[in-house]
Specification:
This protein is of the alpha/beta class. The chain is about 25% helix and about 25% strand. It is built from 7 helices and 13 strands. Strands 4-1-5-6-13-12-11-8-9 form a 9-stranded mixed β-sheet, sandwiched between helices. The chain has a two-stranded antiparallel sheet with strand order 2-3. Strands 7-10 form a two-stranded antiparallel sheet. Helix 2 packs across helix 3. The termini are close together. The structure holds manganese (II) ion.
């Protein structure tokens, strides 16, 4: 039996309140469970590594997962740095994940980018974002279902391009319901990326990098939908399979 593929998962840093505030580096456990359920062995990639260390680490993992999180700094895509809707920016995290994308794309390492991950993937390759979809994008439907909704609430449909790796992975080229836990979105698609799913308002909800074994980003959170939309398991399965599982 071949060893289970190692899936390197990017992390965030957060201040939590113990007896006094302390900094922790971590990841929501739903990502870890989704990778495990698909046959992968997750390993966390801590913040604080330099580019050389990230490159060395990337040579040893079989795939890279970019999870959700706060906003990419607008300066990275020529956006409005004064926008009042920007939240939870961490430029150190941005830089680490840009490096991970470069290594994954250049090294043909399977990449699954989720929510913020998709946005960062797009910015890393030269695209831009809406600082706030509801405020800026003409004709936008609601996408920001934080707070009063469960994370597996199916907020809107997406239409999946028939001739895509995503359709192949999900075994569906029609319309599926997805959760929507984002307030930003792709404004200008990066050169080289191909859109493969759209919300009813036209917002790009999934992208792929062609001529790569598996480099895919989704704007929704499939790791929260394993129960209500079991076909999302197939997406993780396709990712782990591309990583050798
Ligand atoms: Mn959405």
């Amino acid at each position: 039996m071949s060893p289970r593929p190692l899936i390197g998962c990017a992390t965030y840093q957060k201040r939590i309140q113990q007896r006094e505030p302390i900094e922790i580096i971590g990841l929501m456990p739903t990502y870890i469970q989704a990778v495990r359920a698909a046959g992968g062995l997750p390993v966390l990639i801590p913040l604080g590594l330099d580019e050389q260390e990230l490159g060395a680490l990337l040579q040893r993992v079989d795939g890279v997962l970019l999870p959700g999180g706060g906003d990419v700094a607008p300066a990275a895509y020529g956006g409005d740095e004064q926008a009042t809707t920007i939240r939870d920016v961490d430029t150190r995290r941005d830089e680490a994940e840009f490096a991970l994308v470069r290594h994954a794309v250049d090294g043909e390492k399977p990449l699954l980018a989720i929510c913020r991950g998709l946005q960062l993937f797009n910015v890393a390759l030269g695209g831009s974002l809406w600082e706030d979809v509801a405020e800026s994008m003409p004709g936008a439907i609601p996408h920001d279902f934080f707070g009063q909704y469960q994370r597996d609430y199916l907020a809107h449909p997406v239409t999946i391009a028939g001739d895509s790796r995503l359709a192949e992975a999900l075994q569906s080229n029609g319309t599926i319901g997805v959760n929507s836990l984002h307030h930003q979105g792709i404004r200008r698609l990066a050169p080289g990326l191909v859109p493969v799913a759209w919300a009813p308002d036209g917002l790009v909800e999934a992208v792929e990098y062609p001529d790569h074994p598996f480099a895919l980003g989704v704007q929704w959170h499939p790791e929260n939908l394993l129960q209500v939309e079991p076909q999302m398991r197939l997406l993780f399965r396709a990712f782990v399979q591309a990583a050798g599982g």
